[in-house]
Amino acid sequence: MNIYIAIEYSRIHGGPVIRYSQHGGLSLDRITREYPEDLYTIKPDLLKGLKLADLLEIGENLGIHEHQHKLLFVVRNMWELFIVRDCTFL
Known about the structure:
Elements: E1 4-10, E2 15-21, H1 28-34, E3 39-42, H2 52-62, H3 68-84
Helix pairs in contact: 2-3
């Protein structure tokens, strides 16, 4: 199973967002064009950080139950890297 996960700074949302889809291996433009209903966006609170509820929502929307703990570990670490290194896209 391929998935798309990116963390980016969004001017529309006024801060970082996590965008993800079950259609990994495709460009974001193609996912947006062909599968817009399968592209999810969450905006974690910058002051409170990424919550467990946010991580569980990602796993649920992607339909990953068996290896959800691994996905949560990766996304949490991506978020920490994004914040600590002051990234604009990851």
